[in-house]
């Protein structure tokens, strides 16, 4: 009985961790001029879904509009909209790295800023489970088990991604250490060579002056 309780507590903890990682509610305060961006490091082949809506300042009498641009780690534009009050963007990542979503206000609003509410979903959180349930005719416990299976797969894929990144960083670190070691050896060799040349030059100088 105690083992079952511990198992359920562990599953609940895992689900909480996944929910925090895969679903992000962001409240972004935009100034009257300038741009604010949010970024997320995402691995390849992951579905990203985000809804955004502008919340105008209480003192603003006119409707405020926002422009949005989403770019990939290699600066490819994935989504771009101007003069909108709300919207949604969705894409599947093609490469791993930091994906950037930038927001800025359009027009002059007498120096008044605005807030943007962003509902950012990644991976399993972006999946339409209602469509899955209708298509496969599942519900209740079976649907929850499918969600749990998908979340476990997401954890596994994320762990593999982190393991790969750790291996890449370790390789880079080892290469850097090897280059530093070779540079130190070369520097030591150059210093020894210069010292030998200086001794040889001084010896010849003193011999010419017949001091030795």
Could you characterize the architecture of this molecule?
- The longest helix is centred in the last third of the chain and has 68 residues, at 141-208.
- Strands 1-8-3-6 form a 4-stranded antiparallel sheet.
- Mean pLDDT is 80; it is low at 1-21.
- A hairpin with a 5-residue loop joins strand 4 and strand 5 (77-84).
- The relative contact order is 0.15.
- It has helices spanning 2-22, 129-136, 141-208; strands spanning 23-30, 35-42, 47-56, 65-71, 77-84, 86-92, 97-106, 114-122.
- The chain has 212 residues and is α+β, with helices and mostly antiparallel strands.
Short account of what is shown:
With 212 residues, the chain is of the alpha+beta class. The protein has helices at residues 2-22, 129-136, 141-208; strands at residues 23-30, 35-42, 47-56, 65-71, 77-84, 86-92, 97-106, 114-122. It contains three helices and eight strands; from the N terminus they run αββββββββαα.
Write down how many β-strands occur, each being a DSSP E stretch of 2 or more residues. Answer: 8
Number of helices: 3
Helix content: 40-55%
Q: Which strand order spans the largest sheet, edge to edge or round the barrel?
A: 1-8-3-6
Structural class: alpha+beta
Order of helices and strands: HEEEEEEEEHH
Q: What percent strand?
A: 25-35%
The biggest sheet, with number of strands, parallel, antiparallel or mixed sense and barrel status, is:
4 strands, antiparallel
Unreliable stretches covering 5 or more consecutive residues: 1-21
What is the arithmetic mean of pLDDT? 80
Task: Give me the oligomer status.
Answer: single chain
Calculate the terminal CA-CA distance, rounded to whole Å.
Answer: 95 Å
Radius of gyration: 30 Å
The geometry reads as elongated
């Amino acid at each position: 009985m105690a083992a079952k309780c511990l198992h359920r507590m562990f599953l609940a903890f895992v689900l909480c961790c996944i929910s925090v990682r895969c679903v992000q509610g962001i409240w972004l305060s935009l100034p009257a001029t300038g741009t604010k961006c949010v970024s997320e490091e995402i691995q390849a082949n992951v579905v990203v879904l985000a809804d955004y809506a502008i919340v105008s300042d209480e003192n603003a009498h006119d409707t405020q509009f926002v422009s949005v641009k989403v770019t990939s780690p290699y600066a490819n534009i994935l989504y771009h909209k101007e003069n909108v009050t709300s919207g949604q963007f969705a894409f599947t990542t093609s490469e791993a790295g930091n994906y950037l979503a930038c927001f800025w206000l359009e027009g002059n609003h007498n120096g008044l800023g605005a807030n943007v509410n962003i509902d950012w979903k990644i991976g399993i959180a972006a999946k339409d489970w209602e469509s899955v349930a209708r298509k496969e005719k599942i519900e209740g416990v079976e649907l929850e088990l499918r969600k749990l299976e998908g979340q476990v797969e997401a954890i596994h894929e994320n762990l593999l991604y982190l393991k790969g990144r750790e291996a890449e960083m370790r390789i880079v670190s080892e290469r850097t250490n090897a280059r530093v070691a070779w540079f130190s050896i070369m520097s030591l060799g150059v210093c020894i060579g210069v010292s030998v040349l200086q001794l040889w030059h001084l010896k010849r100088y003193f011999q010419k002056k017949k001091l030795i």
